[in-house]
Amino acid sequence: MLPNKNSTNTTTNTNTNTNENEDSFVKVSLVNQSVFIRKKKSCPLRDIDISEIDYKNLKLLNKFISERGKIVPSRISNVEIKKQRAIANAVKKARFLALISPIKKD
After folding, report:
1. Do 28 and 54 lie in a common domain?
2. What is the structure's pLDDT at 103?
3. pTM for the full model?
4. Is 91 inside any structural domain?
5. Contact call for residues 104 and 69 (beta carbons, < 8 A)
6. Measured between alpha carbons, how far is 90 from 106 in angstroms, rounded to an integer?
7. Most confidently modeled of 8-12, 14-18, 36-40, 98-102?
8. What CATH number corresponds to the domain at position 91?
9. Interior CA angle at 101 toward 92 and 66, to 5°?
10. Positive or negative torsion for Cα 18, 24, 30, 32
11. What is the distance between the alpha carbons of residues 63 and 19, in angstroms, rounded to a whole number?
12. Is 101 domain-assigned?
């Protein structure tokens, strides 16, 4: 009995197809190793107007003060520049009026 030619051809074809697929996966993975995608974070105060950032709003200001009493920078808090300036001015004013202690104790 002779071996069926169709069965041998299909096995060799599937082997070459799998090798091609493996090669394509390797190429894709090598290309993507050096790619670093940074997602843009949105401002946590996007729904709050600048006029609402006030020295009397202590609950809001305490979110942007570190454990040591320092104002958290915008690169960490992801706040827009104008709102970051308003927060900084409000915190300084609240400290001057002794509404917030210079060193945060919680």
Report:
1. no
2. 80
3. 0.61
4. yes
5. yes
6. 20
7. 98-102
8. 4.10.640.10
9. 75
10. negative
11. 55
12. no
As given in the structure block, the two tokens for residue 75 are: 């690169």
Residues 19 and 55 in one domain: no
> What is the pLDDT confidence band of residue 51, given thresholds at 50, 70 and 90?
very high
Instruction: Give dist(CA 64, CA 59) in Å, integer.
Output: 10
Q: Residue length, the chain?
A: 106
* Sequence-distant (≥ 6) Cβ neighbours of residue 44 within 8 angstroms: 77, 78, 79
Considering all CA atoms of the chain, what is the largest pairwise distance in Å, rounded to the nearest integer? Answer: 101
- Is 44:83 a contact under the CB 8 Å cutoff? no
Does 45 map to a domain? no
Contacts of 66 (CB under 8 A, 6+ apart): 72, 104
Bigger pLDDT: 100 vs 38: 100
User: Are the beta carbons of 77 and 42 closer than 8 angstroms?
Assistant: no
Task: Please say whether the beta carbons of 82 and 91 come within 8 A.
Answer: no
The answer to whether 74 touches 84, Cβ cutoff 8 Å, is: yes
Decide if 47 contacts 83 (C-beta within 8 A): no
